[in-house]
Amino acid sequence: MAFFDTHTHLDYLAYETNEPISLLVENARKAQVEKILIVAVMAEQFKNLEKITALFPNQLCYGLGLHPLYIQQHQQDHLVLLEKLLNEKNERLVAIGEIGLERAIPELLTDELWKKQCDFFEAQLSLAQQYHLPVNIHNRKSQDQIFPFLKRIQLDKCGVIHGFSGSYEQAKRFVDLGYKIGVGGVITYARANKTRNTIQRLPLDSLLLETDTPDMPVFGFQGQPNRPERIAEIFTALCELRDETPERISETIWETSCSLFS
């Protein structure tokens, strides 16, 4: 089996644990995680992710985006920089992300900041459309607000709804548009009935595996930074929910991941 961790902040894990990227990549490979996508959240990370992934081009790829959590820091110049880097067409730059809308933090929902969130989200979707790249979408308490944007701005390769924890009906709407659903540590918790039921019912080829390293710890590792190798626990939990064989699940998700982030 081979795994593709389709959503990490590996640079943040290295900083938090003071471990070299080489060790993090090696630990992941020992757990059959052959590919890792690192996504940006702020413009100051952009060049660093380019350098990090150059060290391990067969294992690491990256996405560039401006995350809605940091909407107060984002500037128009950051969108200009993003487009400049997209235009350079680095082969390891395979996605625009992490982008999206954030509705769980009241301070970010003032009229001014909500409009800025929407403007930056739309601008980055338009760049994804222009450069034929998939998107990696943050959607905390914002699935219903995000959907109209994705329906209106149609992308060649669509992308993934990261860390999805909504209802089956919400997920199916995204899948019907062509988007994939990110399956992470949430499904390792028995109490997460709604998410587990959703992942159980969706088409297998609409699912991707992700850790959100160093966030979203899996069950049994609460309080510790998450790591790409813990995708094995997520995979085990997924196999318990699905009717397909583990081999079929692994093969399908690997092919889907590689096709989307090629």
TrEMBL record:
SUPFAM superfamilies: Metallo-dependent hydrolases. It comes from the Bacteria. InterPro entries: DNase_TatD-rel_CS (IPR018228), Metal_Hydrolase (IPR032466), TatD-like (IPR001130). GO terms for cellular component: cytosol. A divalent metal cation 2 binds at H138, H162. Belongs to the metallo-dependent hydrolases superfamily. TatD-type hydrolase family. This is TatD DNase family protein.
